[in-house]
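Input sequence (267 aa), recorded before submission:
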Amino acid sequence: MILLFYAFEREIAPFKRRQKTRALLALDGLHGFRTEIAGKEFAVVGHGIGHQRAAQTARRAFDLLPGAELVIGTGVVGALSSGLKPGDLVLSDRILTIDGDGRIDEQAAKLGDAHIRAAGRSLALAGIAYSSGAILTSHRVLATAAEKRRAKETTGAIAVDMETAAIAAEAGARGLPFVAIRAVLDEVDDDVVGAEMADEHGIVRPLAATSFLVRNPGTLLKLPRMMRNLSRATAAIADALTAIAHEGKFPADAKRARGSAARKRPR
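Predicted structure, token format:
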């Protein structure tokens, strides 16, 4: 079994739609679904936004779904390198953490080196470009270009999120190999738009959204671009996971889904 973790529903939605046979996990305290791809069983688990929620959900998932042979973390990241654009994929070769006091550590996780190489081969065989480098997990949103550029200079990481290190640590504690494949949502010089509007599941809260937009009316002009970027990122995630599951050999229906997504994707 492969355990696949994501933060919020929009991240996994395009991949989920491609699974013709899927079932709810039906496990107390876990949100997600089961599916079979290329003869492999996948348990796909949503953990919400943030380090603490990711760690708690991962522990519960490992307790209730024993026997995983591989753990994959996926979702969106913010770019810390100027060469990364929305929809670009990052395959992590290192995981760094930065705590609330600004201390930076390399995550002592068991990265599955052989599995990372296999994932890279699958992406290459499918003709999917990706970047390899360190992902930084922050305990808070790095909301401004200045914060993201400082993080790049300090750590050398090429992308930032809020969950990868938590999942990796829980997998490492159980001796399970871990692979992180994530897609870029915002460029290094983009300010993060409206993070305060969503709850821990990534769902926009109407009252919080209204309050934020009243205080920051200029955000309305930035939201359409953010949604286009999210569409690019989630389509890239679906392509990458499909390629990895099929070891680089896209089945016909997945090729059609990929082609359709590419035609619909905003330019």
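Checked by second reader. The chain is about 40% helix and 25% strand.
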